[in-house]
Specification:
This protein is α/β, with parallel strands linked by helices. It has 16 helices and 17 strands. The longest helix is centred in the middle third of the chain and has 15 residues, at 166-180. Bound molecules: adenosine-5'-diphosphate and magnesium ion.
Amino acid sequence: MRDIDVSGKRVLMRVDYNVPMDVASGRILDDKRIRATLPTLDYLRLEGARVVLLSHLGRPKGKRDPSLSLAPVAARLAELMGEPVQTADDCIGTVVQDAVAALTDGDVLLLENVRFHPEEEANEEEFAKALASLGDVFVNDAFGVAHRASASTEGVAHLRPAVAGFLMESEINFLSRAVEEPERPYAAIIGGAKVSSKMAVIEALLERVDKLMLGGGMANTFLKAEGFDVAESLVEDDYMAEAKRIEEKASERGVKLLLPADVVVAERFEADSPARRVSVKDVPAGWRIMDVGETTIDVYAHALAECKTVVWNGPMGVAEMPSFAHGSHRLAGVIAKLEEATTIIGGGETAAVVESLGMAEEFSHVSTGGGASLEFLEGRELPGVAALQDR
Ligand code: ADP
Ligand code: MG
């Protein structure tokens, strides 16, 4: 964004204001995605740009849905900026064109939910042209949807000079560091519910990391593939062979692969279920693994101690239940203390864990993109990034 002149220009800016909202009251439950765009907005306003903001909210499936209006977001943005934010009740059309034409330098206008139009997700050329007509230049600050080739993320970028905003820039900078030139030793910790959704990233990371530590529900499939009885734990039996193959590939490549040694098991998948810590050899019949144990975190902490790059994606347990969040909380503390390392947190639920602990500032980077950061770490090209201009 610093490479182009924006003063006095109409800047069409794609943001990711897909914030969690209480549908009944329209109350915003978490405004971090709005706050994350303030640096770019401040810069543009100081430079005297006329800012036209474009976002989606939820999944209106191409139809106008008043409960998914961005009006509450405009109100919150105005509060956060301490400046008025104009709104329009659509994102294309004559009313919108008039509103844009009436902007003066430094003004901010938030258009209505771009997904009210089916042409958005279909990435239709005419729709992209209608959006592009609203700006002289295009700034993309919506990393969280950069993996989607929509009209407002990809189509429009081919029709106007297109550059990255500060949030997009910092996401790309930090994540590329992990993908392209990681300082070594490089460790990745992957958790979360399912192996199936993490297979591609594990596969890609195996090409790059020195150590790979697994946890969460997905580690169960690896444990079972190693012959442990995981009783009623979440397992994807279809992926046992894949798990074995990953283990073989890790050993061929000299990647140190670590699995949980002890786990917290529960009688039922419930927050207040009876629970206890056992060795992975001793999961009681009828019980299920809900979290990793103290020994596992001790071992992982030891393996992380010398690392210079650390990527963590996926909670170590069912972290939304306080009684099974301990492993994730301890791991967050361990990573936060690695003073010498570049530490990167990716994934929606993992970011939520570190934010709930008030620890977000203690990592080099907490990605705002869930799916997008995963695809980036997989080494895939993100359409919303690829469409931006090269320097
Ligand atoms: P992220 O959003 O950070 O990428 P995921 O979506 O992959 O993370 O994983 C988060 C989910 O994994 C949570 O809903 C959590 O309950 C689930 N999970 C973690 N450990 C277990 C487990 N042992 N059994 C069942 N589910 C688990
Ligand atoms: Mg998730």
